[in-house]
């Protein structure tokens, strides 16, 4: 079968039987990879998913909405997104890619010379077996994508269909404490009241007393359960009692770091407590300047924090409190080496607070290594929020996928919609298509600067946008109220990603809707 042309920065090229867009402008030569051919008859050992996909063109499909699982989906061909190619681990031949911050699924380097297709890590190949995807998780020091076959997705359609449960009587959580009961500074209590907090959530009610006592805490809780306040309130009180305290909060994404800093400023209003946000994608000079001034909190991503420590700009030896927020996602993104490096530089008698949505064997290893006799608190509810009405839209031949989305977005109740795509390039292209069709849309992904991403989030929060299109990594930790719909335009890689996606709607006792496109 003749190859189809594709274009990069270096001009048109051909790849046998499939059209691909290269990431860096250089043509891909099969001979450099042991003579394997990419396209036509794949030599990857997996299903022939890459034979003749249509790249860069909308899939012409027809759709219908259904509330029951369908059949024939597992064998439906889906186009591979942009992937990158690099060397395998320890020089062995394999398709090694490097997804920047894990946003781009790629053909990850084989682990110890074994040929595999795990998501590549920035500055590295796959580092660890990925049981969820059947490949290797992204490695490297700076956050690779989740591994597995390049575009392997979670495909249990029955999980995408679930009607919100409406009951006459709902068990109401009765906290053991009120915020006024906690032994914290009176000015801090006043700020809590100003922010509209009345009664603590389950994670706040159970974690705050132990943090105030200086104990290590492991908190297992779903997204949107108030974890941020559960550690910020007692730590602000800790600083008020000892102004020399320096606290580091490590998070997986820039957006979550900014969100936590905003919460901190609200709780610490007029208390002369200062913070520095240290994340990639933002000017290093401003962060260095902030660290030279007086500060109490440093909030950042592991990669940037490590860079600052290596520059001798970040004093870890005197840091006796550390928070690892959304530790499971940091592990998935390949930050494990940076996390271990940072923890090794801190005082051994530190207080460590560890928050995660899941409790895997890898997470248990980290808890054992990082914490001392921790108090474990689990307030995790069922995997899927009962307040989210979930359904699928089946896209079948005869209808353009973007037209299907267009028809949904024109409906009156689709007023604040979060759409998830798999790749940075796909997310950006979808946003441009929606803007061209008259929808007020923006995008957030790893190729956007921090200021652009934050501006897009602020517009979405203020209802200046109808649609925000995002990758999983960029959207991690987003806390936006009143999201009417979450649309999985591309399938999530794992069920855990699906849960995190739909958790952005149906919050604060309100009903939300999640729709997953099935091709």
- In the predicted model, the low-confidence regions spanning at least 5 consecutive residues are 1-151, 165-170
The biggest sheet, with number of strands, parallel, antiparallel or mixed sense and barrel status, is:
7 strands, mixed
Major beta sheet, strand line-up: 3-13-18-17-14-16-15
Sum up the overall morphology in one term. globular
Instruction: Summarize the amount of helix as a percent range.
Output: 25-40%
Radius of gyration: 23 Å
Measured between the Cα atoms of the first and last residue, the distance is 25 Å
Percentage of residues in strands: 15-25%
Structure summary, number of beta strands: 18
Average pLDDT number: 74
Quickly count the helices.
14
Structural class: alpha/beta
Main features:
14 helices, 519 residues, disordered N terminus, alpha/beta, 18 strands, 7-stranded mixed beta sheet, 17% strand, 7-stranded parallel beta sheet, globular
């Amino acid at each position: 079968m003749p190859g189809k042309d594709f274009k990069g920065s270096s001009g048109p090229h051909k790849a046998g039987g499939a059209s691909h867009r290269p990431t860096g402008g250089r043509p891909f030569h099969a001979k450099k990879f042991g003579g394997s051919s990419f396209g036509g008859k794949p030599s990857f050992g997996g299903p022939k998913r890459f034979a003749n996909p249509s790249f860069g063109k909308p899939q012409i499909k027809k759709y219908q909405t259904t509330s029951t699982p369908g059949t024939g989906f597992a064998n439906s061909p889906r186009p591979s997104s942009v992937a990158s190619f690099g060397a395998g681990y320890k020089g062995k031949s394999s398709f090694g890619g490097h997804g920047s911050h894990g946003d781009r699924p790629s053909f990850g380097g084989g682990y110890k010379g074994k040929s595999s297709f795990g998501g590549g890590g920035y500055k590295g190949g796959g580092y660890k077996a990925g049981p969820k995807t059947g490949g290797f998780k992204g490695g490297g020091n700076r956050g690779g994508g989740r591994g597995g076959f390049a575009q392997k997705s979670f495909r249990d359609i029955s999980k995408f269909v679930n009607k919100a449960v409406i009951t006459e009587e709902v068990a109401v959580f009765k906290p053991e404490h009120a915020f006024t009961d906690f032994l914290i500074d009176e000015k801090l209590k006043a700020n809590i009241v100003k922010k509209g907090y009345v009664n603590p959530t389950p994670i706040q009610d159970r974690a705050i007393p132990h943090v105030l006592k200086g104990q290590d805490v492991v908190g297992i809780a779903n997204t949107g359960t108030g974890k941020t306040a559960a550690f910020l309130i007692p730590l602000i009180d800790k600083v008020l009692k000892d102004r020399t305290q320096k606290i580091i909060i490590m998070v997986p994404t820039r957006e979550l770091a900014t969100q936590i800093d905003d919460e901190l400023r609200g709780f610490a209003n007029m208390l002369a407590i200062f913070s520095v946000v240290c994340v990639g994608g933002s000017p290093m000079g401003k962060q260095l300047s902030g660290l030279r001034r007086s500060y109490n909190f440093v909030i950042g991503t592991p990669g940037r924090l490590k860079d600052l420590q290596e520059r001798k700009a970040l004093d870890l030896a005197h840091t006796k409190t550390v928070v690892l927020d959304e530790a499971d996602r940091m592990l998935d993104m390949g930050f494990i080496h940076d996390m271990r490096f940072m923890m090794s530089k801190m005082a051994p008698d530190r207080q460590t607070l560890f928050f995660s949505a899941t409790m895997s064997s890898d997470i248990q290893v980290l808890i054992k290594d990082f914490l001392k006799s921790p108090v474990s608190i689990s307030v995790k509810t069922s995997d899927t929020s009962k307040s989210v009405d979930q359904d699928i839209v089946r896209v079948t031949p005869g209808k353009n996928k973007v037209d299907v989305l267009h028809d949904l977005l024109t409906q009156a109740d689709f007023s604040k919609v979060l759409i998830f795509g798999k790749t940075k390039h796909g997310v950006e292209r979808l946003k441009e298509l929606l803007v061209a069709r008259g929808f007020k849309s923006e995008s957030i992904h790893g190729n956007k600067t921090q200021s652009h991403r934050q501006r897009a989030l602020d517009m979405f929060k203020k209802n200046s946008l109808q649609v925000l299109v995002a990758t999983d990594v960029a959207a991690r930790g987003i806390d936006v109220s009143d999201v009417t719909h979450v649309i999985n335009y591309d399938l999530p890689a794992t069920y855990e990603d699906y849960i995190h996606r739909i958790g952005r709607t149906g919050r604060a006792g309100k009903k939300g809707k999640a729709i997953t496109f099935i091709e």
